[in-house]
Structure formats: C-alpha cells, structure tokens
C-alpha cells in the first residue's frame, strides 16, 4: 500500500509543539510519511519554516488565514513576499489563504484584497495555494478564475456541493478530503467525495481541528489520515490500492514533494 501524505496539518500548534518527534513517530506508524504545515498568520512563519528545516517529514506553507482578517497588517504581505523570495525546497505552497463568510463581521472586501494579493505572490513564485473556503465557494471560484494560477492548488476541508467541487476541478484545483466524511450525517459531503474523480482528491486532517467521528472532544492528529482513507475506501468503488496511489500521486504532483524511500 502506498504511504499517506497529510496535506493539511497545523503541526505548529499544540498538542504537537514540544512533542514533535513522538508525534511524527505516531504518524509514521499509521503510514503517514509526509505532512504539510500551513500557516495562519505571519507570526507563525518562522516557527513553521524551522519545523520544516529540522524534521524531514514536514513541509511548509506560508499564508494569512481569512479567519484572522482583523489581525493581519499590510506589512505582513511584505513579510510573506520576502519569505517566498528566499524559499527553500521545504516551502511548497502559499497557504492557508482564502475566504470565510461564516464568521461574524467577515469584512469581505478586505478578505478579497488579501486573497488576491496572496494569489499574485503565489503566481509570481510558481507555488500552489492551500485554500480555506466556508460559505464562499462561488466567490472563491470567481477570484481563482481571474488570477489563473499555473500551479493551482487545493480547496481544503471541502463541504460544498458536487457542482461547486466540479467548478473548482474545471479550474484545475484539487479537493481536500478530511474527517467530515467519517460522520454519517454528512451525506452531502460523502456523496461528493464518492462521485469526484480520483485524480482530483487529496488526503488531509486539518489537525488538531476537525476530529473524526468517535473522537469528538479530542485533538485531531495526522495519523487519523489513515482512518479518513479507510472511510473514503468504503464510499468508493475502486480498490484501496488504487485510491491510495492516486492520493499519493496527486499530492506529489501538486506540491512537488520528493518520494519517501
């Protein structure tokens, strides 16, 4: 069975911070061999870059999360631009960026301006993007259509409709499959992940957030990617080995990740 890549894990947060080696060992025991760590604000860039530099399984993504729109400063864009100019092979994406219309006072014009600025930086530096989207799929697709990134990216933690997922795929984007599909009540998302082409799917946890069914109240962990995979196999018709191979190849292709021996 091919190994797993957790394409979205906030490994710079507790319970992983201070327990990195043990956490990576637990992930490896579940065959999760590589992990992409997206930033939420410029304050976390040094920490994430340091993690990626010091732990071979970890890779960095730098960006400003829309949930923190009230905190981001104009100077943070200059910090991001500088980090991207000096990028190493362990910096593989711009993220987590995107739009969020679910929160109170979303400040959509400001969110859109920040998103567009970061999309332009991603295009300038030939990097894919890791995208957050809550109740904003149509607005996000419109923004992506205007920028037309050559390296595209992934819409992470997707919970929209099949038509919305297909719209992103037509633009060349991947769809992130996470713990939502482990909940029986999430019938719409389970149907979407069963219906989309394997060539469009990536595996993720969003750890320590988005705990799986049966693990509510506990921090999510990257090793749970194996359980997300198991449920995905239950929802789809293909053999598990074929599903795993596509998930691995898609992740390697998008983020230009090296193979693990």
From TrEMBL:
Gene Ontology terms for molecular function: hydrolase activity, acting on ester bonds; metal ion binding
Alphabetically ordered keywords of this record: Hydrolase, Metal-binding
Keyword Hydrolase: yes
GO cellular component: cytosol
A Pfam family that the UniProt record links to this protein: TatD_DNase
Top-rank lineage group of the source organism: Bacteria
UniProt protein name: Metal-dependent hydrolase
Family indicated by similarity: Belongs to the metallo-dependent hydrolases superfamily. TatD-type hydrolase family.
Residues annotated for a divalent metal cation 1 binding in this entry: 8, 10, 96, 206
Keyword GTP-binding: no
CDD domains: TatD_DNAse
Residues that bind a divalent metal cation 2: 132, 156
Alphabetical list of InterPro entries matching this protein: DNase_TatD-rel_CS, Metal_Hydrolase, TatD-like
